[in-house]
Design goal:
Number of helices: 17
Strand content: under 5%
Radius of gyration: 21 Å
CATH topology: Na+/H+ antiporter like fold
Structural class: mainly alpha
Shape: globular
Oligomer: single chain
Helix content: over 70%
CATH architecture: Up-down Bundle
Largest sheet: none
Number of strands: 0
CATH class: Mainly Alpha
Length: 397
Amino acid sequence: MFETILAISLILFLSKLIGDLFDRIRQPAILGELTAGILLGAHLLGPFLFSEPLHEIEYMQVLSQVGAMFLLFMAGYSQVNIDKLLQFGGRSIGIACVEAPLSFAAGFGIGWLFDYDIIASFFTGLALSITGIGVTVRTLMDLNRLQTDYGMNILGIAIVDAICGLFFLSFLTAFAHSQEDASLYTMGFTVLKIGLFFGGAILFDRVVLSPIALLADHMNVAESKVALVLSTLFLFSYVADRVGLHFIIGSFVSGIIIARHADFAQKEINHKLNGIAYGLFVPIFFGVLGARIDFGILKDGGLFAVAFILTGMFAKCLGGTLGAKIAGYPLMRAFVVGTGLIPRAGVGLVMASLALSAGLIDEKIFAAVVGMVAVTVVFTPLALKYAIQILEREDLK
């Protein structure tokens, strides 16, 4: 219990201190939070401070997941214009239809080349087709670029990737452990549940939220509106997880829905939610993510891990760039989209853990996925920032 309190204290202090240093040299603040986690991880200060790795300390994983919820909620609540997101929705799906198959083919090819069976190779393809939403969204928010055309496209593509990836993982698990008919049944049932989730979200927006806002107006209890907003966030995250989506999809959708209602979109409420999110939970999320980073794990994966990571980064960037170019973007703008799709984080780790537990992959593939997360969460904020700088210099010419 008290190690948890110590871990929270150190993550918050170091993430803001180091984040400020990065901000002063015009680097994304997310790097400070990741660096704080790396410093407190098992390979640096962690063994001197904690009896077990920071990310395994009691409650830290739960707090980290709450941080991921808040990150995507705040993106939907205060950073994303839903009309703008829908405006770019068709283009995002079009780009995803280019980059995801290319990344999948590259991953499947790597698995097949290293003599893995078709199930394991299918998973390596799936792992390379997923984008880490949290890392890119936070970087774009730090740079104040999330509401740009390319920011909306990157966000839309990442959401499409996550939904499709988790859907196909459920199919793959069923296919590996049951008959074909059962697999098709599982696919159909998963589609139905996802459809019901989004249908229910629309119904909640149009029917339920207004009476809740009216109820909050008549409450004398302090911070009732903030409490109802948080209740909605956690409810949507829970329901999304139960229907087979990643919980952060539910967090993001709840943020968009809440922001559509003026009673909940007041500046005072936004300010309080910002304090909770960026003063506590989001730094914990990135701190724990940083603490999990172990570049030494690449040794466990050997040549396969190196090939897997490099192929994954190249294929994702190339696929995103090519898809955006086909969608009508100039080359440099398309390259920014491709760069923003490189990171793998929460969804990829969840998928790898599920696949390992189900016996679909071995420890070497799991190590390669963890290694890819480690490399891409550090590489992407820097690469994306410089790609945007080059783009904006070109736009000024």
